[in-house]
Specification:
With about 675 residues, the protein is an alpha/beta fold. The protein is built from 17 helices and 27 strands. Helix 4 crosses helix 5 and helix 10 crosses helix 11. Among the domains are: about 50 residues; about 160 residues, Leucine-rich repeat, LRR (right-handed beta-alpha superhelix) (Alpha-Beta Horseshoe); about 70 residues. A hairpin with a 2-residue loop joins strand 17 and strand 18.
Length: about 675
């Protein structure tokens, strides 16, 4: 077949001698299957005699020309006939030639196969380069072994049911879109479907003797059933749409395949193409019409292993990314459920008249009888998500990303000095800010070089919360995402940060560089606030807030020592050198909800103890008073009785003395 792979040479002696098997040989040196397919005795006998060896007559009873050959010609070429380039539009009636075995209609204008049903001994039929649109008229040709229908207008493979002895089927250069109706051709050895409109290779089951399959110049993007062909040796897939090795992966399971062409496909442009094909198809002898050497096989094996490792690593990274995405989605859902539950509880406590309550910005009517069911729904949702990770810790370059409250536990790990030293940015997501405050001390110890803090979905709602960041070692950048942090909606929040954390000399806030004007404005807006806070608090309260390291300095201020030469400027310079915060700013501190609740609980316990203690003292005093009053009432009578008993006892002086001596004696004994 022209431009489609190989050259098929038919031996006329095999056709003439029925006792010999029908043979064909493949000329691998050329790339044409149909170039002079009849390069044998057929052309030699007919090329010089077409004008006088045969003639067409007309039949009055039919519309078809009738072919007549001379007796001499019939004797010389009794079993073959060539009618190529005769400008035929129909197949002529071939009268008296029932014994023909080879018939050639190349290069004509025939549109329909007809008038050859009587040629039941026909073995070779060539209709190359005609205008045939449908396969037909072949049902009686049961002996046919070679059928050449290349370069026609055929759109569908059909009407081949009775050609069970077919060896070669050439349908190249047609308009066929699907391989079908050929599974019964169990004797077929060569199938040429090049230059058609095929997109998928399928329906090849049953072709157990097929050795050569030509599918060049189609639109093939996937192969099926090819590995089920036990005798397939040569497969031509040049110039198709095969873009990945997975599209032809089934070929790796073919043990008989020795030659394959894939040039002209997108896959052939890949750097790993040759190595991958050779690695998975070790049985190949030729690839893209080039013989494969042992060195190429060895190199392919090494390269394929490297490529496999790269793909495995890439797949691993993809899985890790997907797991990370799913984990973050799960953490976000749990965070949302937690926020909804918190908002629901708060709304139920504040509003018992069934008024609309906001839940994450939306209004919802909650009735008492429905509150339990909603809580159950939320709880079940959390349990359903518990199959995934509830937190995530990730180090990306110099950034430590913490997702979920459970991620804060990573600060208790034994981080290597190298890893901890490169961490410059710490990002918090889906974590309550109050929980973050509790670990800030650990954070500055574990990661001493961290200078950039990021907050997203952390419930930063008040300016006072930023005061908790003062306990950090150093902060150069601060990023607060508007998502999940309502405090960003306050116009002055940046100025408060600059004022309260002035000792850090913050360079950027939310990616915007801090200017001198920003610092001056912050001082003007909130300077009076720090003065009021420090002047209104009692001294003992101020001392507890400032801490041991500031107590001496604070006492000096109270005693007026700060007025002595250089004290005020020294404080400022010390603060700058040591990175410490000023005393007045330290008054603007933040107490977390949990700490505040603990303090309230402690105060409540102390109050209860004091109340109980005072009550016991009062009760004891009351009892003493009652006893005193009773004694006052009984004392006169008791005194009279005491005097009377004493008089009676000493009335007889001798007896009394004896009694006293007896008591003394008894005591000594």
């Amino acid at each position: 077949v022209n431009n489609c792979g190989l050259q098929l040479v038919i031996h006329a002696s095999s056709i003439a001698d029925k006792s010999k098997p029908f043979e064909f040989r493949i000329n691998k040196e050329q790339s044409s299957f149909h170039n002079r397919l009849l390069q044998h005795d057929l052309e030699k006998n007919y090329s010089g005699r077409q004008g006088d060896a045969q003639y067409f007559g007309s039949s009055s009873s039919t519309a078809f020309p009738v072919l007549h050959r001379t007796t001499e010609e019939k004797i010389l070429n009794s079993d073959r006939l060539s009618l190529e380039r005769q400008k035929l539009t129909v197949c002529p009636i071939i009268d008296g030639e029932d014994h023909l075995r080879l018939l050639n209609f190349q290069h004509n204008f025939i549109t329909q196969i007809q008038n050859i049903s009587n040629l039941q001994h026909l073995v070779f039929l060539d209709l190359y380069d005609n205008q045939i649109e449908e396969i037909g008229g072949l049902s009686t040709l049961r002996s046919l072994r070679v059928l050449l229908l290349g370069k026609n207008r055929i759109k569908k493979i059909s009407n081949l049911e009775n050609l069970k002895n077919l060896d070669v089927l050439d349908l190249h250069g047609n308009q066929i879109t699907k391989i079908e109706n050929i599974s019964h051709l169990s004797e077929l050895r060569v199938l040429n479907l090049a230059r058609n409109l095929l997109t998928i290779v399928e329906n090849l089951n049953g072709l157990d003797l097929l050795t050569e399959l030509n599918l060049c110049h189609n639109q093939v993007s996937a192969l099926k059933d090819v590995d089920a062909l036990p005798c397939l040796q040569r497969l031509f897939l040049s110039f198709n749409n095969i873009s990945s090795f997975e599209d032809i992966l089934c070929l790796a399971d073919s043990s008989s395949l020795s030659d394959i062409t894939l040039d002209g496909n997108p896959i052939a442009q890949e750097t790993w193409y040759k190595h991958t094909v050779l690695h998975h198809m070790m049985q190949l002898r030729q690839l893209d019409m080039k013989r494969i050497t042992e060195e190429e096989r060895r190199m392919a094996s090494v390269a394929a292993r490297k490529e496999e490792e790269r793909k495995r690593e890439s797949h691993k990274q993809t899985l890790l990314k997907e797991k990370k995405r799913l984990t973050i989605c799960n953490i976000a859902r749990q965070w949302e459920i937690q926020q909804n539950q918190t908002a629901l509880v708060a709304s139920l406590n504040q509003d018992k008249d069934n008024e609309p309550c906001p839940i994450n910005g939306s209004a919802a009517y909650v009735f008492p009888e429905e509150s339990r069911s909603l809580d159950t729904i939320l709880s079940s949702a959390v349990q359903g998500l518990s199959v995934l990770e509830s937190h995530l810790v990730e180090v990306e370059g110099d950034t430590l990303c913490l997702y979920g409250a459970g991620a804060l536990e990573c600060l208790d790990r034994n981080w290597s000095v190298q890893t901890a030293g490169i961490i410059a940015t710490v990002s918090f997501m889906f974590i309550e800010f109050d929980e973050i405050v509790e670990v800030l001390t650990k954070l500055k110890i574990k990661f001493p070089n961290s200078v950039h803090l990021k907050f997203k979905e952390t419930n930063l709602v008040t300016l006072q919360q930023f005061s908790a960041l003062a306990q950090m070692h150093r902060i150069e950048q601060l990023t607060v995402d508007p998502q999940g942090n309502p405090v960003v909606s306050f116009t002055l929040w940046k100025y408060y940060v600059l004022f309260r954390l002035n000792h850090f000399n913050i360079q950027k806030i939310n990616g915007v560089k801090v200017t001198e004007n920003d610092i001056v404005m912050a001082e003007r807006l909130f300077g009076i606030l720090a003065y009021v806070a420090s002047s209104e608090l009692p001294n003992y309260r101020m001392l507890s807030l400032v801490g041991e390291s500031r107590r001496k300095q604070f006492h000096d201020l109270l005693e007026g020592k700060g007025k002595k030469s250089g004290i005020g400027s020294e404080e400022t310079s010390d603060n700058g050198r040591n990175g410490g915060e000023s005393t007045t700013r330290a008054m603007l501190n933040y107490t977390t909800k949990d700490f505040h609740m603990e303090k309230l609980e402690e105060i409540k316990e102390r109050k209860t103890f004091c109340q109980t203690y005072v009550e016991n003292l009062v009760q004891e005093a009351a009892d003493i008073n009652m006893k005193n009053e009773s004694l006052q009432k009984l004392w006169p009578q008791m005194f009279i009785e005491l005097v009377r008993d004493a008089v009676i006892e000493i009335r007889n002086k001798n007896s009394y003395m004896k009694l006293c001596l007896q008591r003394i004696t008894d005591q000594k004994q």
